Amino acid sequence: MTAKKDNNKTKKLTGQEQAEKFLSELNHPLKPEIEYVRNIIREANDQLSEHMKWNAPSYFIHGDDRITFNLHGKEGFRLIFHCGSKVTEHAKGKPLFEDSTELLEWLAGDRAAIRFRSLDEIELKKESLKQVVNKWIDVTKDI
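Structure tokens predicted for YdhG-like domain-containing protein (143 residues):
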């Protein structure tokens, strides 16, 4: 006798579905702001794919992680702009590009962050954030 196939298996969630599930269950004082920034990123560049990395929504292109939420900390939340988990040769050098928006806080030559504290602040930075997302993806595509 053969075993019956289980047609009720739970399907594996896509990266975007994992992020949506994570956010639906998230208990964070700035949850609406986090969701708003998520939508801005997704609108800014349709080549980015979303998944969960380092216990937060993360955005990648061609298999390389580039932008990740950091939801820890007392003063808001941050977006981390990076070149993946490995240190690159650019880490100890000067910043990858001049940030004309002045949003980025450079943590290393190949890593930067933007902190968000309120919906009003995000609204003011929305267009600049889109510029930074696209510039980061363009500059890091060959790293």
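Helices lie at 15-25, 31-44, 119-140.
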